[in-house]
Write a structure and sequence with these properties.
single chain, 403 residues, alpha/beta, 12-stranded mixed sheet, two-stranded antiparallel sheet, 14 strands, 18% strand, disordered N terminus
Length: 403
């Protein structure tokens, strides 16, 4: 038995791309990674549940190539912008075994239009650039607040005072239900606005399929400039909840079409959110990263996943004893396979124009069709950090069955 506190703010995860003026900004590489202990607990968060093991710290970062668009046009018309959402009360989420890979555990999740449907977008919003939004985050552990041992402040932003970026789809119509794409980038930005530029954005600069959100990280003083996701009480979980709650009120999207992606540190963040916010997040896409050993409990609710890693990446796939990391991306993949109810690890080749032969992608054939898993161990360009690209994520998400 597991209790899942399901709230409106977590209902739909969409890939969020962070960017401020529409201009991509390179992030300088750093060696150090964030490894810290924090307390989650923003109002409207999911009560997490124990699940598999996870991964460690984040090394060198490089910004991947610009993403390629793929596309689903527009969105479904919204007859009524109802704001009805589930109460933030504990619900019985006990899950039977997923037999023969056909019945994923806890596959239900929020559906319907967001509260912002039918309401004009905030003034100043644009499809041609990124708009910064400041917000206050509740539920952050005391050690990460001012005066705490893990406090950090970058240009006026700390773990309770944060920001995110939004970019609208072209010809945004608040009566249409778009996808929501949320994304985070890699380590190295020290200006407090790392979400400016879109994170690991799989969509083109001009597209008409998704509201995009870019996540910005804050880090403790003296730590690496990365997301601070490496603990069971990470402040990045209440941050995500707060961002999603605000976005839900302001923009129109389908709560069952929330996607999250990330590169490097953003990929560690994405794995953490897939674990702790399963049932809110419909699907993920990762470049590098992994699932940390110290992390919030998992909801044990499945997500569709397109997972990529370079075979020679400093972010480990496996054989981590030589690196000093926690668990790498291969172990994170296995947690997702188990959570999704995939009956076996049998695979078939997965080859598309966006996932070429030297990506060595496979799809797991015994997973539920609603929650497929694609894994790519990439040798292209030496298989290093940043191997591959995020361009394959959107076509994969677009093809998912409607939940």
């Amino acid at each position: 038995m597991r209790d899942l506190v399901s709230t409106w703010s977590l209902a739909n995860a969409v890939l969020v791309v962070v960017a401020c003026s529409g201009e991509l900004r390179e992030q300088a590489p750093v060696d150090a990674a964030v490894s810290s202990t924090m307390q989650a607990g923003a109002s409207g968060s999911l009560a997490p549940h124990p699940a598999g093991s996870g991964a460690g710290t984040e090394p060198l970062d490089a910004r991947p190539d610009a993403a390629v668009s793929a596309g689903r046009s527009g969105g479904a018309s919204i007859p009524d912008a109802s704001t009805a959402v589930p109460d933030a009360s504990t619900q019985d989420a006990s899950m039977p075994d997923a037999g023969a890979g056909t019945t994923p555990r806890g596959a239900s999740g929020p559906t319907g239009p967001s509260a912002g449907c039918g309401t004009a977008a905030p003034s100043g919003e644009s499809a041609s650039g990124w708009t910064k939004h400041d917000l206050m985050v509740k539920g952050v552990a005391a050690k990460f607040l001012e005066g705490g041992d893990e406090y950090g402040n970058q240009h006026g932003y700390d773990f309770s005072r944060r920001n995110y970026f939004v970019r609208l789809p072209a010809d945004y119509d608040s009566k249409k239900s778009y996808a929501l794409v949320i994304s985070g980038g890699g380590c190295g930005a020290t200006d407090g606005i790392s979400g400016n530029g879109g994170g690991s954005n799989p969509l083109a600069d001009r597209q008409d399929v998704a509201v995009q959100v870019g996540l910005s990280y804050v880090y403790p003083m003296g730590a690496g400039a990365c997301f601070a996701d490496g603990s069971s009480d990470t402040p990045d979980l209440p941050y995500f909840d707060a961002v999603l709650a605000e976005v839900d009120k302001a923009y129109c999207f389908d709560r069952s079409q929330v996607f999250v992606s990330g590169f490097s540190s953003g990929a560690w963040e994405t794995y953490m959110l897939a674990c702790a916010r399963g049932g809110v997040v419909r699907g993920i896409g990762t470049q590098a990263g992994g699932l940390r050993k110290e992390r919030p409990p998992c909801t044990n609710v499945p997500v569709a996943a397109f997972l990529t890693a370079g075979v020679n990446d400093a972010n480990p796939i496996e054989n981590i004893d030589k690196t000093g990391f926690d668990t790498g991306s291969q172990a994170a993949r296995d947690v997702i396979l188990e959570t999704n109810g995939c009956a076996t690890k049998e695979t078939a080749p997965y080859l598309t124009a966006d996932a070429p032969e030297d990506w060595h992608c496979v799809t797991y054939t015994a997973c539920p069709k609603e929650y497929p898993v694609v894994w790519c161990a990439i040798t292209a360009n030496g298989g290093g950090h940043g191997a591959g690209s995020n361009k394959a994520f959107w076509p994969f998400w677009r093809a998912l069955p409607v939940r």
